[in-house]
Amino acid sequence: MVCDFFHPQVGGVEGHIYSLSVELMRRGHKVIVVTHHRDERRGIRYLAPGLKVYHIPYVSIASSATLPNYLLFLPYIRTILIRESVDIVHGHATLSSMAHEAIHHAPLLGVRTVFTDHSLFGFSDAVGVLTNKLLASVLRNVDAVICVSNTGRENTSLRAEIEAERVNVIPNALVPSQFQPDPSRASKEITIVVISRLVYRKGIDLLIASAPTICDLFPEVKFIVAGDGPKMVDLLQMREKYELEDRIEFVGAVRPTDVRDVLTSGHIYLSTSLTEAFGTAIIEAACAGLLVVASRVGGVPEILPTEMIEFAHADEDDVVRALSTAIKTVKAGKHDPLKAHARIRDMYSWAQVAERTETVYERVMSTPERGEGERLARLLGLGPVMGLIMCFIRGVEWWFFVVVCWFWPADEIDVVPAGWDASSFGKAVEQEKQSKDFSQPRD
Amino acid sequence: MSTATRPAAVMPAGSNSDETPPPWEKVLWRRQPYPDNYVPASFLAELDETPPRPRPSLVPLLVATLPVSQHLAVITLFLAVFYAMLVGDFGATEVGWGCCMVGVVAYVLWRVGWGSSTAATRTLIPEASAMRPLLLPPLLLSLLSPVLGTLTSATTSDSIWPLAGGLFFLHLLLADFTTGPDARRRARLRRARAKRRRSSVGSVDEVVEEKSLSSSLSLTSALSASVVLASRLPSTAHVFSLILLAAGLFAGWPTLAKGVRESGRSFSAALTISMAWLSITLLPPSNKPHLKLGPLSIARPSGATLVFLGVLLLVNVGGPLMLWWGWRWKRRLDGSWDQAVIRVRKRRQ
């Protein structure tokens, strides 16, 4: 697993990599994570059930992403790949240049490549235009791509101009035991919960526009808003303007461990996000027994059966309509939190994700490897300008690889002995369970 | 439909071939008896590939580039006069008086109005007298010109030429080429009018037409370039004339040219041709013998003229043709992955 985004930072991609790695280890694979260093966290660390993490001495720029430099990662990744006798490099996230470079370098050592795309991008904005070209150059020679939803797959195959057959759809998952519903905690009045970063992309303007109407229509409804961000000011202004201080409660940013407590204090979860590749927060809320009202964007329509979710368009009136329907459903007692939890538990699990990912790995390993000439030819197909640039980079990379091989011969690198299997994983889990709850990653 | 058209190879291994699997659905919450890389028949069905706007015809594109050519011609005119002053073909007096004459004529033309572009505007501040903007800048300039002339005189000419070139390029890059009020300004005016309707005070009709930051920067860089060049001239009188010319060309002329452009395409074309013609006549002539074509004797174009004509051709013909040709790759891809657009009702106050 190679990605810029990993613990101790918290987020969707980070959690995905961690959970998938743990499940793959449970299935008897050897998994290591490569990421860049963070302050005090340098060198090699181990996360809870024995997950080995390499922190490369790279300086990150904005939001924990590193600058793409194409070549300097090669000495690091080569040493790691040889030391750990790696068979497959699995890069994550479009904006992680580390993942991109690992996928460029891995074929030099005969290592196969898989890439997971976690996000959706448009085609007309500047970010889309720039990253789509970079992504296309990376995915030209990748062996398999994994997307988290069918919409994401359509988006990725268009953005990176790759054959749809090479793209797999494996949804995200969650740990259902962490989102146990607790109907006794919910208050008598109906509570609508919003947990989100308070930014434009999460559609907070829709919340600001529709909350006063809902409070007006249903005197027994309360709002709990968790999260922080630039839109906080607008929300506070709205609350003051309509004198809703006792109806709308702000609890600020919550830690991942406290999300469940916030969720179970409500009845309805509202997600007004304007773009969402998968919507893990939505299934978490549904798992905690909440009825979900969500905007119909990206991969959201695919993740839950229609009776568990109420869709709204990104329209103030439609959000009000959907919320009203949901409030009436909850009032009539037609929504059973425990039943909803039981259904979600069967729908999503990391074990299933790991099993499906394993199938992808097996398929990748069974296909013949591309030759260097074929790779260059495919890169050239990117276009008369980008293709040539990538071919030049590839050529320099190859010579750099020769120099690195001469400087640090492969036989001088010590190989980590293979002593890790499912049984030792079980032992580690037992040990860990005695001391701490193992679901929380820590050193 | 999907089950009928798909070959059996994509079916998952080990599935019973006798019973047909249920049709594929675009959902994730249910495991479906298809492999993860199964490509359904409905793949990309929601892709909304709207055809781009039709290709604009060539003539409006050509007309749209005319302001750039006019600007190029003005810069060339300035450089030609500067060169002539530097080598001694033009004296300070000639240029200074020329500037004054043309400036007064242009000012009168602007005050009277070109076409119908001038609307009577009432402002709170009393109108300045007609003579003030005519007299004040030259007086100020005559005071300042000794300073301006020595400002960069210590710098070597090797540094001055690229610096002036860079500043002129910046000027061209940031210049305001709009013809007529553009959409953003129209929207701002509409908003201002609506605001005025609502509020009871401030009934004075003021048309807000502020200069954009980029056009101010453009003017500043052009004036800086002329100041930098002025330090190469022999006397303070030369400096005065050159800066006066620069002020007229880069501050005064664009407003006038805009009025001309707004009067119509033919005016715009005529202005471009006359400006280009004027610039070429002022450029240093070639010292090779004239071409004899029967009774006609045509001057050979000098290097500077050729460069100028080449740039004009590139901007005015090459640019539009490139856009015209590149239009074939223009396409829009919309789909369900796009960021949703919020629709919020306007609140009643």
Automatic annotation (TrEMBL), chain A:
One GO molecular-function entry: phosphatidylinositol N-acetylglucosaminyltransferase activity
InterPro entries per UniProt: Glyco_trans_1, PIG-A/GPI3, PIGA_GPI_anchor_biosynthesis
GO cellular component term of the entry, any: glycosylphosphatidylinositol-N-acetylglucosaminyltransferase (GPI-GnT) complex
Glycosyl transferase family domain: residues covered: 184-305
Domain of life: Eukaryota
Top EC class, one word: transferase
Keyword Glycosyltransferase on entry: yes
Recorded metabolic or biological pathway in which this protein acts: Glycolipid biosynthesis; glycosylphosphatidylinositol-anchor biosynthesis
Protein name according to UniProt: phosphatidylinositol N-acetylglucosaminyltransferase
From TrEMBL, chain B:
Pfam families to which the protein is assigned, alphabetical: GPI2
UniProt topology in membrane: Multi-pass membrane protein
Pathway in which the depicted protein is active: Glycolipid biosynthesis; glycosylphosphatidylinositol-anchor biosynthesis
Keyword Ligase attached: no
GO CC, alphabetical: glycosylphosphatidylinositol-N-acetylglucosaminyltransferase (GPI-GnT) complex
Superkingdom assignment: Eukaryota
BP GO annotations: GPI anchor biosynthetic process
Keywords of this entry: GPI-anchor biosynthesis, Membrane, Transmembrane, Transmembrane helix
Transmembrane segments: 61-83, 95-113, 134-154, 160-180, 237-256, 306-327
InterPro entries: Plno_GlcNAc_GPI2 (IPR009450)
Compartment annotation: Membrane
Location of region: Disordered: 1-22
Entry similarity comment: Belongs to the PIGC family.
Protein name: Phosphatidylinositol N-acetylglucosaminyltransferase subunit C
Native organism taxonomy: Eukaryota, Fungi, Dikarya, Basidiomycota, Agaricomycotina
